[in-house]
Amino acid sequence: MPARPRMRTRSLALSLVLLAAGASAQLSTGANGGEGGPGASARAQPQDVPQFVTFTADDAIQSYTVEVINHFLAERRNPNGCAPKMTYFTSLSYTNYSMVTEMYVAGNEIADHTMTHAGKPNVSEINGNLRALNAFAGIPVSDIAGFRAPLLSWDGDTLRALHNASFTYDSSMTSASPANASNTDAYWPYTLDNGIANNCLEQPDICQGRLKLPGLWEIPMYSTFGESTSDIHLMDPWLEGRDADEVLGWLQQTFLQHYNGNRQPFGLYSHPIHLAINYPGVTNPDAIRNMLQTFLDWVQSHDNVWIVSNKQLLEWMRNPVTNEHIADVEGLGCGSPAVPEDENICNGIPVNMAGLLNRCDFAAFPWQTCYYCPATEPTPDDPVPSPREGDTRHTLPSDCQTAWFDPIANRCLCDSDNCAFTDETRPIGNYSTNLGGNTTGSGDSTGPVRAEATAPSKFNGGVPAAAWSGAALLVAALAAVVP
Ligand SMILES: *[C@@H]1O[C@H](CO)[C@@H](O)[C@H](O)[C@H]1NC(C)=O
Ligand SMILES: *[C@@H]1O[C@H](CO)[C@@H](O)[C@H](O)[C@H]1NC(C)=O
Ligand SMILES: *[C@@H]1O[C@H](CO)[C@@H](O)[C@H](O)[C@H]1NC(C)=O
Ligand SMILES: *[C@@H]1O[C@H](CO)[C@@H](O)[C@H](O)[C@H]1NC(C)=O
Ligand SMILES: *[C@@H]1O[C@H](CO)[C@@H](O)[C@H](O)[C@H]1NC(C)=O
Ligand SMILES: *[C@@H]1O[C@H](CO)[C@@H](O)[C@H](O)[C@H]1NC(C)=O
Ligand SMILES: [Zn+2]
């Protein structure tokens, strides 16, 4: 970590006081109290930090949606030469679980979007998604860190449920003013240690610091602006313009509000199905697809732009470094598992798993998995049903990475420190089992039981206070340079 940006005490204190005020948290305005003064020349400037761009997708993962993601990202590279990663907020109705495994093993982030796409979801919708993704897509529980509410419909109970289940972050809140406006609500991601600061008009009961959830992060969704600051577009803005060129103008102008301003992350929030080719009922998306490629090419022509998953973004927030030291951020590396190509195991890597998928023939939507097929469809109230008769495949154990596990032989191929892994359990609501347990089929009942109290402290308090203050410092530092 580089030397922390120096700044006058007054500006930091003021920014943090404002943060504590929750709704009125203002990170980007006159907290600097004037120019000059000791240390002024040593402050971090916005152009010293990366411009992060998050490409997120929501809903079911299917062939159509994977094609869309690959179309936009597969050929791109970040400044370090690694392929960009993205975050998929996954709901499970109509999801093909084997494709979730593939997305994950390729390095993308799989996040929770409830099982059945329920707005203001109950706890079973949220935690059931986690459990079913673990059992049937082989995603380690500890790697399912984020949540987005379907229809962006959430309330205080939604956030409390996330906090209870040790999620790292929510990304359901919205920012509705330009990143470079003087009273913007386009905050950098923040923890709810001091309460929520977005959507306060709609959520007066929990704003103003009334609901504090220490350690839980919020990654606001940043709007795209059209003709004026009241012409606000959030998800799939490309569906809302008169034509693709008009939307290109919106995206470019909004990107510059971030890039030339405080470098808050810029987001593209997609429902990939709307960009799918030949999907029944979807208007031909060619013009929009071309426009988005043009936009991403243009974005990547700027210096220090990184296309990242939300998880990668938070990794940087917890240990913010300047562009000069960006190579130190491990999570931004390429990190592909080096499983030998001649291994024939069902692990999410196409060359290894050819011919090994298990087909679960449910009437509503037949899906594939590397793990066992449940006797009945997973539901919020029974997210991990026991195996159908005669199906002896295993679920992912807690001590093997997805790419190295053979669910047919119940064997972990990893035999070196380089691939060693432990899926540390975390308390999930009412469940007390190790959700990543080495089970043979039958759901959580045979998993090694670990009580909530023994969950590693890493998951109990969420983000260590020091990490938060590091991020706050940097945010405050950025605040201090904007007039
Ligand atoms: C599910 O994904 C696999 C690849 O992981 C693919 O072979 C299969 O056709 C897909 N099934 C459906 C129903 O889309
Ligand atoms: C949670 O909500 C879902 C519908 O979204 C429902 O099917 C389920 O029964 C509910 N579970 C509980 C415990 O309330
Ligand atoms: C969160 O956990 C607390 C303590 O176990 C419990 O009382 C509360 O009902 C939970 N809230 C939600 C929304 O899950
Ligand atoms: C914000 O950014 C836009 C786009 O670059 C620019 O036109 C506008 O002047 C900026 N506004 C402020 C207040 O700096
Ligand atoms: C799972 O548990 C069984 C029986 O306890 C054990 O033989 C096997 O080695 C374990 N598998 C893994 C991958 O840990
Ligand atoms: C929690 O688990 C207990 C014991 O299994 C059960 O009786 C209770 O109904 C569960 N509560 C919820 C909210 O699921
Ligand atoms: Zn959705």
UniProtKB/TrEMBL annotation:
Region (Disordered): 432-453
GO biological process: carbohydrate metabolic process
Keyword Phosphoprotein among record annotations: no
Family matches, as InterPro entries: CE4, Glyco_hydro/deAcase_b/a-brl
Signal sequence interval, chain numbering: 1-25
Biased composition (Low complexity): 432-447
Protein keywords: Signal
Keyword Signal: yes
The name this protein goes by in its record: Chitin deacetylase
Originating organism: Rhodotorula paludigena
Upper lineage: Eukaryota, Fungi, Dikarya, Basidiomycota, Pucciniomycotina
